[in-house]
Structures are given as structure tokens and as C-alpha cells.
Amino acid sequence: MLIRNATLDGRTMDLRLAGDRIAEIGCGLRGEELLDAAGATALPGLVDHHLHLHAIAAALDSVSVAGPDPAAALRAAPSGADGWVRAVGSAGSLDAADLDALHAERPVRVQHRSGALWTVNSLGAGLLGLATADHPGIERDAHHAPTGRLWRADAWLRTLLPATPPDLTPVGALLAGYGITAVTDATPDLECLDAAALPQRVMALGVGLECTPPHGVAVGPHKIVLADSDPPDFDDLVARIAAAHGTGRAVAVHCVSRTALALLLAAFDVVGTRPGDRLEHAAVVPAEAIPALAAHGLRVVTQPGFLADRGDDYRHEVPAAEHTDLYRCASLRAAGIPVALSSDAPHGPLDPWAVIDAAVTRRTPAGTVLGAAERIDRRDAVAGYLAAPEDPGGPPRQLSAGCPADLVLRTEDGQTLATFIAGRRVA
Questions:
Q1: pLDDT higher than 80, residue 32
Q2: What is the pLDDT of residues 238-257, one digit of tens each?
Q3: In this predicted model, what pLDDT tens digit does every residue of 47-94 receive, in sequence order?
Q4: CA-to-CA distance for 6 and 327, rounded, in angstroms?
Q5: Helix, strand, coil: what percent of the chain each, to 5?
Q6: DSSP 237-294
Q7: Rounded distance, CA 246 to CA 167, Å?
Q8: 117, 87 Cβ separation under 8 angstroms
Q9: What are phi and psi of 251, to 5 degrees?
Q10: How far apart are CA 36 and CA 5, in angstroms?
Q11: Contact predicate 35/405, CB 8 Å
């Protein structure tokens, strides 16, 4: 393949692809199958450093209750092969009674937009046997009756509602359309993943310390979840980090609150860090914690896209003095902390260009700027998607002769003209 007339570092250049590599970059190249880029900008393929592939696929096949009439949406939704209606997009604190009022005729399970909570209606609660089940994530009222709310119970639900893993082919096409050529799957306790269905290069955080990774999947840092609904014992957290380090793996720690961050930093004070240790989300980072993050050599994988997606909720839920603490970018970079951007899809917006815009503007859906001091310029925001999967927040990859032919062509009006992975056009 010969790509003609691409804009690369501000100059009009041609790129020759041979096999899975860029063979040559120059002017006036001739030969091969031709793609005229017509001035589109050539960039290394984007890397989404934190998303959930199976959840994205499942969300594509789920009904959303985020609209104005969730009852009508549930009525119109088809049942899955398991007989349940699967829904996503809840932003409130639904319980079983609330869901019964919306749809009581079939078992319904609704995932909160955070991904941490499922709610089932009364029919679903009965089928799951919540009244006598002993999973720690089952919320109960003052009379010990289940409320229908299930915290971080995905693995347990999979044992009760076994299903074939969703087809990832549409997910791969969707990612390629955005120019994403590599992803890091952040699903905890990952057991299977059909990487062959995806054109993207895949790294996974949720592979167990003693588990064989799925075929075609690279092993990343070990995923540890600090759940605010069920905080870990401090000694247990220290032991889990030490166990990962003992196998030679860094850790990737889910951390979304100031309490969880304080606990994590205290654990690192005891056990120490190793290169590659990373903080997932860093949704709230007080200014006084930044020096400790830098001193420990941690890197941060964050999602400013949440500001554009639900920033108006944060305006009301988070004190104004703490708005700068949300999804920090500029102050972390200034402290020398490597910062990578990502989506956390399907819980956050998948479109990397929307996430990049959010990092630049920090505007809510209503147009309010949250934490103006944390804005970064567009070049730095794009760079947040250009580091290698194994080096989030590291230097952006460059296009040069001999490097892997993973690249995207973006037109001046912000459209993806073409995406290549290992020299093969995938979008």
C-alpha cells in the first residue's frame, strides 16, 4: 500500500507500507496500491489504555434506560437468551421496587453507568435467590431483606446466568472507526477473551497471577479493585500488591475516591512500588496527594471524558472547591507523573476524540468548565492516546521507516479517513 499526500509533522509526505511495517517515508514515492490521503493527517494508531471489551459488546445488545421513558424502553426490549431484559445507563439509585414499577413482567437487570452496581427487579431477585444468597455485594435493608442492588457482583452473576461471551467483532469495527489500533482491557478476573475477533492489539489487566492469558492477549499489570462499597483490609491490600510484584508484574489499581487513594498510598509506603505500577481512574486526587504519587513513581490512566458526559452531576454532587481534584491532568503532568487518557467504555464515552476534547476544555454538557487549571493543550491530549500500551503516559509513538504500520489518517474536519493495523486497512 502506498499512502500519498498525507500530512506528517506539518509536511506533505508519502508513506509506503510493506508487510506489517512502514517501509519508507518520503516525497514523490511511486508504485503499489494507492490511497490518496488528500492532506489528511497521519498519526500513530490510538491506544485506549482502559476499557472493557465484553461490557462494550454487551452494551451494544442492551436497552438504555437513560432516556425520558425507561418504562417504554424496557417494555419494547427483547428478552435475552436467558429470558432476562438487560439494561444499561442507570444514573440514580434504583432498587427492586423502582424496577417493578417500570417493568415487573419479566426479570430485569440494570447496570449503573459506573459499572459497579447491578439492580434487579423482584422477579429477578427471586430467580437469583437473593433472599438466602450470601454474596457480600448483596445489599440488604434494615430487615435483612435484599433491596435488589448488587455491588460488584459480576463474577457471581456469571455463575448464575451463564452465557456465551459476546461477539467482539462489532466492537473491533467500532474501535477501528475511531482510529484505535490497540486497547488495554481492564475487566477484573478475566477468564476468556476472543482476541481473534478484534483487529486491534490487546493487552489485559485482569489475567490472574497464576493464570494462562487468552491466546493473542498480552499480559499487563495486575488489576486490583479498591471498591468503595467494600473497602479492602489494609494488610490484605499490601499482600495483594506484594504478591503481584513477587511474580514480576506491576499493579493497576482501580481508585476513584480520596479515601481509596489514601489507603493505596499508605499501602505503597509499606510494600513499595515497581516500574509500571499505575493508578486507574484517579477520579479524585487532592492536591496534597500529588507529591506522593510522584515520589512513588506511579503513572495515572484517567478519563476526562466523564466531565463531558456527566460533569453537570459532579457540579451538584462535588463541592466546588474540589472540582479541580476531578480527573486531573495538568497538575499531574507538571509534577512529572505520566498521564494516559482512556475511555473506561462502556461506562464512559468511547470516542477518543471526545475524550481529548474534554481534556482540553473540561466542559460539562451544559458548558460549565470544571477545574480550568487542569486543562491541557490539544497536542498533549492527543499524546495521551499515543503511548505504547505497555507504557501509558510515556512518550508518544512516532511514525518512521521500520516502525509497525499501525496508523490512522484524520481529515481536517475530524473524520477518520482510514485506519491500518500491521499494514492492513481495517477501517
A1: no
A2: 999 999 999 999 999 999 99
A3: 999 999 999 999 998 999 988 999 999 999 999 888 999 999 888 889
A4: 34
A5: 30, 25, 45
A6: HHHHHHHHHHTT--EEEEE-SHHHHHHHHHHHHHH---TT-EEEE--B--GGGHHHHH
A7: 35
A8: no
A9: -120, 150
A10: 6
A11: no
